[in-house]
Amino acid sequence: xxxxxxxxxxxxxxxxxxxxxxxxxxxxxxxxxxxxxxxxxxxxxxxxxxxxxxxxxxxxxxxxxxxxxxxxxxxxxxxxxxxxxxxxxxxxxxxxxxxxxxxxxxxxxxxxxxxxxxxxxxxxxxxxxxxxxxxxxxxxxxxxxxxxxxxxxxxxx
Length: 157
Prior knowledge:
Layout: H1 4-18, E1 31-34, H2 38-41, E2 57-58, E3 84-87, E4 91-95, E5 100-104, E6 111-115, H3 116-121, E7 134-140, E8 144-150
Antiparallel strand pairs: 1-2, 1-7, 3-4, 4-5, 6-8, 7-8
């Protein structure tokens, strides 16, 4: 489990990047991105889906995935807007107003804020076998993508 210093450093970096932007940019959630596990890659994906090239992909309603599965109540995240970033000893907390998302640090998992054009034109074109990182969860906003990445694809939200 990562040390408190790693969680604090990730939080401070995200806060440093996002706080100046929050008052002036649109941080409504526009989409969710994921990285398929080996088991999920064996599912019935459309032939032209990015998962076949080992790429991250934007989650669509008919994809054979369980990206947002878990226990407890589920909230439709798309009308939500990021209001702030907070932290605890082992998690970064994303404030969406009436809903909060806790990104739990189970392994080393930096949270990175990418400009959308860099995300789409560079990051999304790197196949899984050419990179050490895997995408746990990507949250797409109007001009940015917030990416929770992990070497082991081990995470908890």
